[in-house]
């Protein structure tokens, strides 16, 4: 069997470090062996902790023949340059969402991939790997319940220090934007964002909660509630209402306690608890597909379409109107 | 203790007959002793079955001194005349929803009540008496969970023979229009109605499902999904998302069976199963309040505001725009 | 329609008063119009509160022609004399459980009924009227799940001031003894009682919890956990494990709240909350059956068999051995 | 970081092969590189499929310096010889349950370990690694709910071809025997086994279901229902009733569907689905602990005590009496 994939990671912040630990201590077939970060001193301390080789800059690491694959977990604004560098170097690259903040930057990445004639880019939309969402997709695809007509979703955090009104769509609901499109297999054609009454726990000028409406090519209507200061926990809801039944995302399996005149089941307190399994599956499948020479997960085109929809939703939020989402036809390169 | 309230019922169709049975066989303090119906022969057969006295027309019955209180269960278009007749005769009157199809007709009824200086009219919005909705109201009013910010509701029927696109708002979601306003204690200021993808089971030109959005004075945003051909059962959902928690309408208490690799709990097959308890409580409390000389339930003003909102939602549906709902200040007469 | 049944109640303690209120304020077809109680002064105060006629002793009230039916809610030791008096007077009599503390006293009552050639006695085993238990019975009788093989039950109170070790079987689990036999349609052939570790909250010498095992004619094995100081609430559990599925008694329908990192649904705090509906149905059906001249509910024979089983279980508890339960064949008089 | 642990597996049947796949394709820090099996031809085919080296007999493989650790998945009767061989060779050994069928064989293994002065043996009781059981243990150990008093458990299979009456205790309930002792931290002092009515689906002379009762040092009473032909699915239940609350093992997280007048959540169809996560965690932690030079999981002493209890329960079943379980004090060697 082949040797481990040697992975270099650029961006050693919190998310990057969880991926290093995940890959090096839990998964098979790969090791993160090198790192780079804008903050060299910090990068050195991380390298020392995990036994990695430090590169003074990401491009050098990406270009090094010893590195087989790349993980990009820098600040969003720098995703594009490192992903392009990986494409140029012919290396598989996993880029945390968003592929790039601007839709055009995502498009440039897709164009670079197409020009290079090799699909190399996967975007970190981990919910596609969550066992619960996978069950929903299987139920939809079974055809047993007819067509989806409406989706009712919610994405709630207990609190969100530092969040501003522009952040829920692109930082939080971007996950729904990708996974719901994947669930129903259709593109969006419009977005709206409305502001319900704001919670007293919203800091400063933050409008929270927010509700985003998306409609699809065949008329499916999706509502996604984002509530980042819900106080009570980290909670993800998804109901797919079909012609013959309603399909519901399961809650995590926690022990139920009868105590104090209640039956109580814990809810996650923090986002990091909820999708551990999804991240593990996501990275193991990415490693496996790199070793098989393919990309099976969310592509650069998915990343591009995600940003197109997110930008439309942001514009809808800022103008308080419905914004049309024009989706280019999927290039043959990305058709499965 | 006083004698039973003698009730005359005008309109002996299906709904009317369930109320006759309910009052005469189950509840205390009243008996339906007389009936009238546009179809005299049919009315006679009903009278014979239940041992009632037949009146050739509703006005005569309402005016008869032997009748203490009136129930109006005629076709909607005739509610106004009988309710006005009851007010004129100084009799308590329970009118099934809608108080009258047109908002102006409702307003005329309220004006007649105010002119008569006696509150006599109660409208049949039974969900206010459902134990589950009453629990929600108590939870909201406890203040323990902060202000409501959003409500997510659904009203699903397995099928709806004969339903046309204009019916969901005024026939079905009228119940949500009343009970949600009662739950949160605020008036609506706007309505919208959107059409998701239509189910293949919708007959003819019916657009089904439909989603109605309502906003309130303080900015609470409400969504109500109406799906009259959902196929799977009769299902009512209501989630009140507050600043510190989410409150959820309970499902009916049914035995759970583990069988065939599933754990399954039955859902109501028909609307008539779901609100039996609510109707019983509604009528017993109405009877009790008539005997105490007061009206405690949904008033003619509530009926009027319900129709104002329903008409705005219908206009929103027909024009596919948001329609403002202007709510007049509650007359002192109706303030509790 | 016939006049109301005139009911006399002997025993005006707490249980008796709830039945007076239930019948006089909620149900149809009857009124409690008279009362008697060993404590005459107390009886007078109750009579004044509810507008009843006082009788200086129960026998006089029972014999009075104006009284059509009798409710016996005295101390257990006095049930026999009043039930026999009702039989002698040819009056329908509802006797709260136990029919009588001693099995032989129950048998005497059955013999008196048989000798009088009129079935007049109903025993207050209200769980047969609980909607949840009725659903279980319908599921079992559908045959869809095969034969019951095992039942796993629990009867938990938050606390039980004054309870002694002999009380759980005859005061608490007597309800399971009756309803489970009714559910599965078979008699018991043995009883055992074991003592798990005792809770620190058990007062004095009380052994709590206790578990009772019953086996039936066809070998069905039943376990009933009694835990009278469970602390957390009033909780009733019943699982019927059949050849092809497991049937589960539903929990009361309460609003679920997501708050403080939990989803929580309230559990009853007190026994009186849990079976309100059952008591209402029980008494309305008893009133209806009296007016129809029959007894449809738990008979004196059911009361006798219940005490036979309870005494066997008590003996099993005291001797810490398995005790056989010999059930006489049901007299034709009691066969339905 | 150290090289991978080289594991040799003796016994290449179904269970053994799932462990080879698990370790070689999913986990970290080890590879199964060699195998042996009584059936040499079959062993060769397995070796070829997984790229392993074949040994003509297990002892040679265990003795080979290249092998660092051993997994024993032979027929139960041969566990002892291979575990003793591993102890003799100073190699860590994971032995699937039972450590050995006979309690004395288990004791010999423990004595050999003690004599070798190195703890090397771990027994495959994977439920200790199931996230749900781990939650229960944490809840018990929090002390927040007081002492456990009773445990109510069930272990149900949809069917069990070839099962005979002696198999449920030692093949099926052996898992409860170990995990419940671990959960509550006490030894058993008695066992009983009773036979409820047998299901019509039990083949031949098989008595199914069976219920095992265990009592512990402090009086905790445990019931375990074994139902191997339950028809409806693979279902594991565990309720720990404590002084201040009841703790309930969670069900797997599956999507809930509203369809056909039910809300339905799937139950596992097969045992292999239910404990996948537990096996993964079990083996990863075993590999990690081998590499750290310790045994952290169920020890040979746990294996011995498990068999002592299982044999007592088997004797209780055969004699239909309660059998005392005498537990020797834990040798210092095994104290943590």
TrEMBL record, chains A, B, C, D:
Keywords of the record: NAD, Oxidoreductase
Q: Where is the Gfo/Idh/MocA-like oxidoreductase N-terminal domain?
A: 5-125
In its keyword annotation, does this UniProt entry include Ion transport?
Answer: no
What EC number(s) does the entry state?
1.1.1.18, 1.1.1.369
One MF annotation (Gene Ontology) recorded for this entry? inositol 2-dehydrogenase (NAD+) activity
Q: Which reaction does it catalyse?
A: 1D-chiro-inositol + NAD(+) = scyllo-inosine + NADH + H(+); myo-inositol + NAD(+) = scyllo-inosose + NADH + H(+)
Tell me the protein's name. Inositol 2-dehydrogenase/D-chiro-inositol 3-dehydrogenase
> Could you tell me which species this protein originates from?
Pectinatus haikarae
């Amino acid at each position: 069997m082949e040797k481990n994939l040697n992975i270099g990671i650029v961006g050693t912040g919190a998310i990057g470090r969880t991926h290093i630990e995940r890959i090096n201590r839990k998964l098979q077939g790969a090791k993160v062996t090198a790192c780079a970060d804008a903050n060299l001193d910090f990068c050195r301390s991380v390298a020392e902790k995990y036994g990695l080789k430090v590169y003074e800059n990401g491009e050098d690491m990406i270009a090094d023949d010893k590195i087989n694959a790349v993980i990009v977990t820098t600040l969003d604004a720098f995703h594009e340059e490192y992903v392009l560098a990986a494409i140029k170097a012919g290396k598989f690259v996993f880029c945390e969402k968003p592929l790039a903040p601007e839709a055009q930057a995502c498009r440039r990445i897709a164009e670079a991939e197409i020009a290079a004639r090799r699909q190399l880019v996967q975007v970190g939309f981990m919910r596609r790997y969550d066992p619960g969402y996978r069950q929903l997709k299987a139920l939809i695809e079974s055809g047993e319940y007819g067509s989806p007509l409406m989706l009712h979703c919610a994405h709630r955090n207990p609190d969100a220090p530092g969040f501003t009104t522009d952040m829920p769509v692109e930082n939080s609901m971007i996950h729904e934007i990708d996974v719901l499109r994947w669930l129903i297999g259709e593109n969006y054609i419009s977005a709206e964002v409305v502001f319900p009454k704001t919670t007293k726990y919203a800091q400063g000028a933050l409008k929270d909660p927010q509700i985003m409406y998306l409609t699809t090519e065949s008329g499916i209507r999706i509502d996604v509630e984002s509530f980042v200061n819900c106080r009570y926990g980290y909670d993800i809801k998804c109901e797919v209402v079909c012609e013959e039944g309603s399909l519901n995302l399961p809650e995590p399996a926690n022990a139920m306690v009868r105590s104090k005149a209640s039956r109580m089941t814990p809810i996650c307190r923090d986002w990091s608890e909820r999708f551990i399994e999804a991240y593990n599956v996501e990275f193991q499948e990415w490693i496996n597909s790199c070793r098989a020479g393919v990309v099976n997960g969310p592509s650069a085109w998915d990343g591009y379409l995600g940003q197109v929809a997110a930008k439309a939703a942001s514009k809808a939020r800022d103008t308080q109107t419905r914004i049309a989402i024009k989706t280019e036809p999927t290039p043959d390169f990305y058709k499965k």
